[in-house]
Amino acid sequence: MSKVTMKGTSGNRNQEKNAPSAESAVGGELHQLAGGDHPALTTNQGVALADNQNSLRANPHGPTLLEDFILREKITHFDHERIPERIVHARATGVHGFFELTTSLQQYTTARILTEVGEKTPVFTRISTVAGGAGSVDTPRDVRGFAVKFYTKEGNWDLVGNNIPVFFIQDAIKFPDLIHAVKMEPDRGFPQSATGHDTFWDFISLTPESMHMVMWIMSDRTLPRSLRMIEGFGVHSFRLINEAGKSTFVKFHWRPKLGLQSTIWDETVKLAGADQDFHRRDMFEAIQAGNFPEWEFAVQLFTQEEADQFPFDHLDATKLIPEELVPLKVIGRMVLDRWPNNFFAETEQVAYCPSHVVPGIDFSNDPLLQGRLFSYLDTQLSRLGSANFHQIPVNAPKCPFANHQRDGHMQMAQPTGRVAYEPNSLSGNSPRETPSQGFHSAAVKETGEKGRIRAESFADHYSQARQFYLSQTSFEQVHIASALVFELSKVEHVHIREAMVGHLRHIEEDLARRVAAGLALEQMPNAPKPAMPVQQMRASPALQIIGKMKDTLKGRSIGILIADGSDGAAIKKITQAATDAGASVKIVAPKVGGAKLADGSMLAADGQLAGTPSVIFDAVAVVLSDEGVKSLSRESAAIDFVRDAFGHLKAIAVDKGGKALLEIANIEQDAGVVNASDKEAFIAAAKTRLWDREKSVRTLA
Ligand code: HDE
């Protein structure tokens, strides 16, 4: 019997150059062993492999031998490839970049990152969903985590925030309950990354302090169009400390240069099917194309005396400080410009801790923040398995660091000398304290009685929820009401639906009425007794999304649907107008190889129609010949392409054939359906959503 081997078929056809690994860098000679440019494939002990296709067997049909150390090493390593995923924020996109200070805060802080104008500080930013596991979709209705690690000259500073400026709960002790309620229900293991289920709304309905956050998560803020189009917030108040030791409170904000933009619910649901990795891919493609996303960094600064005048307690993380009360001061910018080399090594292993601050920055007494100062370090020990997690390259400070901590799992450093303690008289160069520039906590006087007490100033649960709702445009209000109807319709227990509507009555009676009607409640439920009367607060337009959309197509994407016989000149004109306006353009055709245009030339497609629905675009154009219309009229993907674009309030440019397809799809012309030859009208319509159209395409609450 002849021996069957698979030698030489190891699939090394990928010509992309791999960055040299630690192993291959060691043995120069191994290069020659493998021949050409390829380093030798070795075990982790550096032994070159002669055969990576077959395990060692007693004979061609015999058992595999235990002595096959090559097989065992490879499989063992594979078996241990995963580490525990984050309990929350498991699914994420991470990107390197830099922070540049434009205005000094020297008056307020000694932190050099906030005083050295023009200095560029490297950052690693990780934007995440909260509830879903690492393999869940990018686009559930969910808060986005917005964590930035600044590798400053004075140590790492982690600003671990969200894309929403408030939180569900006031005290850290409630966090495990909140997360257990929102995550998949423990007996059935679903739903994955969705709030629309009984346990979540049960907990929320019994937690009035969450009502402000509920307004935010039911708004389109939780349905971002792109991670490049979200805001970020440090959420808690922090302190800045200046040279004289004086401290000032500060709230941190990130504002996207591309403006805020969200999708609408039906689009979001379909996006999850069209592209599970929609946000990660969008970020990847933007970075690859050199369209580096950018955020302004802004602060709200205020003193204790000013805080005493606020009609809320700024230490309560369910409250925000309206921009109208304390204006934002822009002090810098962050640009994300480099995709990680390796997802696991960087995005997965990065370890943020709100307790990572630098001299000149300090914490406030926000009880949620105080709990977080414990939780993150603890979580890193469990996830990364060692107190040496700071040695992993993505976590290591880029400034020198030295102390007498020693040993532990996976120690990578090799400290020299006999001294590992301080003070000592035996070493002339061991690390010592730096009394002047070292970290000092703010000298804050604490008085009062110890106890498990919630401050009375935390008792107002509805006023800012009401302010948020009343600050929205009517289009946004209707989305909030409809989201509540959608979510509560997924809740089986009627008493939970009723309890929620009861809370809504304190926020705004009309909202409660709309939701009650959407749920077909026969009677309006009673509102629970509020701990404090609801205050009337001035509307804050800064809380809208629509008000913060920018009049631009930069960073947006236009899809052009074509088929055999389409007019090449018309396609070219639309492409030119869209790219001139800053958008990227993708051609969609029934076959990925492209379509044969009217002039006989082939135009390659960027996406095949069935796999490239209009949900992934901000606006679409349809350019078809009579022959093209005929063939697409029988394609549900083509009908869905235009129906969804219309239903999702997008601009549609059509030529004669495109118009015929719209008629087949029963789409009526409106201001957003424009002639493909009128490029100005198309570009103007593509920059927004046709909000007025919505009432004609769906019933909203
Ligand atoms: Fe987190 N949170 N959190 N959180 N959080 C984690 O730490 C926790 C809270 C936030 O990209 C965990 O490394 C507690 C508020 C982000 O790696 C964990 C409390 C805000 C990320 C944890 C909160 C956040 C996390 C899980 C209540 C917005 C992802 C993995 C006191 C200001 C960071 C990890 C990344 C991650 C605990 C509340 C944001 C379990 C106990 C409020 C962006 O330690």
Number of strands: 18
Instruction: Name the hetero compounds present.
Output: CIS-heme D hydroxychlorin gamma-spirolactone 17R, 18S
By secondary-structure content and strand pairing, the structural class works out as: alpha/beta
**Computed CA radius of gyration, to the nearest angstrom:** 29 Å
> So how many helices?
21
What fraction of the residues are assigned to beta strands by DSSP? 5-15%
* Estimated helix fraction: 25-40%
Average pLDDT, to the nearest integer?
A: 95
Q: Span between N and C termini? A: 75 Å
Low-confidence stretches: 1-15, 19-27
Major sheet characteristics: 10 strands, antiparallel
General shape: globular
Write a concise synopsis of the structure shown.
The protein has 701 residues and is an alpha/beta fold. The chain contains 21 helices and 18 strands.
